[in-house]
Amino acid sequence: MASADPVDATNPDAVKRTDLAQVPPARRPARREKSVVERAVSEALASGLLTFFVLLPLVGFHATESGTGSLVLDYRFGLVAVFALMVTAGRLVLNLTVWRGDGPRRSAARVPPKSVAEAEAVASPWPRLGAVASALVKPVFFGLAIAYPLIAVTLVGGLGPSRYWIDIGIYILTYVMLGWGLNIVVGLAGLLDLGYVAFYAVGAYTFALLSTSVPINDFLAGHLGEGFWTAWSFWVCLPVSGILAAFWGVILGFPVLRLRGDYLAIVTLAFGEIIRLVLINWVSLTNGGAGIASIPAISFFGIPFSSGEGGFAHMFGLPFDSMHRMIFLYFVILGLAALTALVTVRLRKMPVGRAWEALREDEIACRSLGINTTLTKLTAFAIGAMFGGFAGAFFAVRIRFVSPESFTFMESAVILAIVVLGGMGSQMGVAAAAILLIGGMEMLRNLSFLKNEWLFGPNFDPTLYRMLIFGFAMVAVMVWRPRGLVANRMPTIFLKQRKSVSGSLVKEGHG
Amino acid sequence: MCAAPSAPPARSWDADPILVVDHLSMRFGGLIAVNDVSFRAGRGDVTAVIGPNGAGKTTVFNCITGFYKPTAGRLALNHGGPATAVELDAVTAAGESWTRTGKGAVYLLERLPDHRVASWAKVARTFQNIRLFSGMTVLENLLVAQHMSLSETGLLSPAALLGLPSWQRKQKGAVDRAVYWLEKTHLIQRADDPAGDLSYGDQRRLEIARAMCTGPVLLCLDEPAAGLNPRESAALNELLLSIRAEHATSVLLIEHDMSVVMEISDHVVVLEYGGKIADGTPDEVRHDPRVIASYLGVEDEEEAVAEAAATKALSAEANP
């Protein structure tokens, strides 16, 4: 092809095809993007206005029966305004994301173009912006996670009142970690696991049983001093919990190796239920439904968070505050989650991680390349379960009480929802989904402002609608982003240029 | 049972076979897909298996690559040099799946699980309906193929987990090998693109590159030219010939495209209704009356005969 031909070079298509590197993205006109935003704003305003006028007679006037039997007219213009604003904001968001471009149906725009040149042709400055943003997302995200307790304490004003926010942070991070753990099994290896909570339970009960075990306590008290086990049990039991959970992951893995798809899902679901039922019914070991209480609290690597002599506050010369322990718990789960992420990132770049993804893509091709699919699947189950076990041990040390109630199928479903919503295989997506799902569900508890006089009135109970709103949100996300929040897959290695792989090419795996 | 009566005295595949197929039979319930087929594939040769649709070619392939366990028969793969009859009988009688021989090693493929056929016996294959890891990039596809050599030190080797220099070197070697095959298959420009984005012809070549990245001694290609245009077909011939010339890899292929078969193969085996009807050089086979009658056809009737054979044949070919 005579690519250097000047006649060809004037043709933008030819340039695009033949020499990507020499076309600076800045040369592409920026007008298009501007018009997109402009149109988005004007359309959003128009829809908002339309909503306002349409709803004004429908919602704005409300007739209620007064005590005497006559009808009284209420005015609810505030509510109409809220609806109009919601429509405006929704339209704006949609116009800028899903409906960007010529018309509302632009599914083609979501299929990432095949080459860089095409990508730049489709939406000029956006990929650049996206590249910069995506490079910044992880450090910013991690930085925010580290600074979160400080921010919470500063904004709320004081350690004590920040308890609620720190608690939410811990809660979300636990699910981020569980999501990342399950992501290995479901997102990378493509094995649909509906019983992940079983490993969470194994981890929690391992720690609970070992740390409250009187023989171990007595034995260690005799050798390493009184109080050793109380102080150190979490740090000793954490790896044990992980290893035991991994062991159970292998136990689950063996019988289900031959199963695929729906059958695999059902058996894993059954496995989760079996573990829970065993925990309920093996009363002599697990204390049954009553659960295990008085689990030792976490220590700062041996230093207890107690008010007296030798406690954390005393050692560091701080005034005692029970929040120290909470903040430490926050950093422990942050560390555990970071470890999960880090290990997963490394594993993806190793033969085993590539084999997982290859397994998700095509199991038969894997076998034809000499990959032992049995071993590969078991590793995925074991490593995923191990992180579930870590999270379980953390759960037990945070709540200091475990019972089978905490390990129902609902938990598995939520964790799986996080993985699917986040985009299978994507770490950032899973983290975002955990924040959205867990944080969002938590925030939906705080809807008391809807009880305002000019909105729904004091008789409205927003908590009743929590799950409804949540369900709608899930459906909406799955309709607009069927492959999850982060649909693209980042390759684990590249020769010249890292290009993300469109979600439409990535398979979900079926067993 | 060679069809050509005036067979030349010394046949390369009889003297030094890489693969010896002895009395291979495969039944699916009452259906006999392959019935007592014996042939040899010579070391360094391109051996073609041809025949009408439903003749059992893919079944033979699936048996060789371990995806099916044959009902009866022996599939002996020789590493290094041919195993003697004594050695072969000894390992068969001992119930082992492989043994070292005087010249190398011999593997009884019917006794190995499919992934061991690839990792131990070093038999690589491609598929009739392309099976790439479409959501992974071209380069990643070729690195997955080198899974066995990369994970020698264990699936979870700490060196790899920590990214130590020894691991980096190893991975560099794997990337170099991938790049070699990408250049060979003219896919180097597409290295960072998802495999699912490649054109059909490119995907076919990538599948061959992926199979070659496993470092096979025997490469089994299931209809590599299916769906290719004449130019791509010619490029494929060139690639296969260069594999034969430059690498210690023997090729076994199933193909319907006679231009490919006649041009590049040293040895042709013809199957019909699960049985072997001819076995010889391309020239011998081309002039074999039975092959002409059942498969190649005569001049005008070529299509009609092939059609008739296809409809008559019991559909024994199943994709794994």
From TrEMBL, chain A:
Residues 1-31 are annotated as: Disordered. The keyword Cell membrane applies. This is High-affinity branched-chain amino acid ABC transporter permease LivM. Residues 40-137 form the High-affinity branched-chain amino acid transport system permease LivHM N-terminal domain. It comes from the Bacteria. Pfam families: BPD_transp_2, DUF3382. GO terms for cellular component: plasma membrane. Keywords: Cell membrane, Membrane, Transmembrane, Transmembrane helix. InterPro entries: ABC_transp_permease, LivHM_N, LivM-like. The chain crosses the membrane at residues 40-63, 75-98, 135-156, 168-190, 197-216, 228-251, 263-283, 289-306, 327-347, 378-401, 413-438, 463-480.
UniProtKB/TrEMBL annotation, chain B:
One of its GO terms (biological process) is L-isoleucine import across plasma membrane. GO terms for molecular function: ATP binding; ATP hydrolysis activity; L-isoleucine transmembrane transporter activity; L-phenylalanine transmembrane transporter activity; L-valine transmembrane transporter activity. Keywords: Amino-acid transport, ATP-binding, Nucleotide-binding, Transport. One of its GO terms (cellular component) is plasma membrane. Residues 19-298 form the ABC transporter domain. It holds the Pfam family ABC_tran. Belongs to the ABC transporter superfamily. This is ATP-binding cassette domain-containing protein. The lineage of its organism: Bacteria, Pseudomonadati, Pseudomonadota, Alphaproteobacteria, Hyphomicrobiales.
